[in-house]
Write a structure and sequence with these properties.
DNA-binding, four-stranded antiparallel β-sheet, alpha+beta, 285 residues
Length: 285
DNA sequence: CATATGTCCTGAGAGC
DNA sequence: TGCTCTCAGGACATAT
């Protein structure tokens, strides 16, 4: 499930396409339902061919290709999408091939479940979707003050609020649990009940966990869909302290065990000992 | 407006 | 063995 670190890794992977010019755009044939491409396929293709890739950026969980003429190609991998230069896991779930004029250069979008969305937007459309709060500020670009400003007034549990991409972009289900564990905050606590010190720890944990995961090139989970091409996996799954570790001892306090609860129909993993609401925030032995 | 819930999708794995 | 069922969750639509 690509979240910020996985999308960042994919964007870095396709950075060699900067400067390349799009020669052809193709949708491989498939028995599967086609993914969403906007605007319609004909216009999408017509507007892409001939464009040059000026930059590849990431915003939250989206990969944004800036093209000459100021259009933006925005790819949302959602659950199982991969943005690659080559070597997709298989051919049957390859959804989009953008071939460049430069020999051997191409951009691939592979997506097993097909929930991903690919859009071509004008600069105005892209900016207005940000301005109208459709996409919140990137999680790695916020200060502790902005973090609190974006989430602090909500009565929702902090774990649920962290997943709201309109409030803050980039954190998904996996890293929300890891971040709250590192910050020693109870995932069920309402945002509006957090104190200033909690926001400081949350901000530090957010940056720590996400940077650590980027360094490890993201997390490949049991389903194995997240790949870096050439069948390479990410490495951060080896560093998870709570995610998918229900019943196992807490790596922080040695106690535990880690508990799984469900919030907003999603799994949350946490250590009740380390993350007890209102507990004195020391390092337990 | 804020918050909660249902929906899309495919493949893996469980259970019979 | 082969079937049916459940589950995973990102982002949006719809309901309250």
């Amino acid at each position: 499930m690509p979240e910020l670190p996985e999308v960042e890794t994919m964007c870095r992977g396709v950075a060699p396409l900067v400067g390349c010019r799009i020669a052809a755009v193709a949708r491989p044939r498939s028995r599967l339902r086609p993914i969403q491409i906007r605007p319609d396929w004909a216009a999408f293709r017509r507007r892409l061919v001939g464009r040059t890739v000026c930059a590849v950026r990431r915003l939250g969980k989206r990969a944004v290709f800036e093209l000459d003429g100021d259009d933006r190609l925005v790819i949302e991998p959602r659950m199982t999408g991969l943005v690659l230069l080559a070597d997709p896991p298989n051919r049957s779930h390859l959804r989009l091939v953008i071939a460049m004029q430069e020999p051997g250069r191409q951009l691939l979008f592979w997506d097993q479940r097909g929930l991903g969305v690919v859009q071509l937007l004008s600069a105005e459309e892209f900016e207005s979707s940000l301005a109208r709060g459709r996409i919140g500020p990137d999680a790695l670009g916020v200060t502790p003050e902005i973090l609190r400003q974006r989430l602090g007034a909500s009565r929702r549990p902090i774990k649920v609020a962290l997943l709201d991409q309109h409030a803050l972009a980039g954190v998904g289900n996996l890293y929300a649990s890891e971040i709250l564990h590192r910050a020693r905050i109870d995932p069920a606590r309402a945002c509006c009940r957090l104190r200033a010190s909690d926001w400081d720890r949350l901000h530090a944990a957010l940056a720590d966990v996400l940077h650590e995961a980027v360094r490890a090139e993201g997390s490949t989970l049991r389903d194995g869909t997240y790949r870096l091409g050439a069948n390479r996996t990410g490495g951060h799954q080896l560093l998870h302290r709570v995610y998918m570790r229900a019943g196992k001892p807490c790596l922080q306090c040695g106690g535990g065990p880690i508990v799984r609860i469900v919030q907003a129909q999603r799994s949350t993993f946490y250590c009740p000992a380390c993350q007890k609401a209102g507990r004195k925030q020391g390092v337990p032995r």
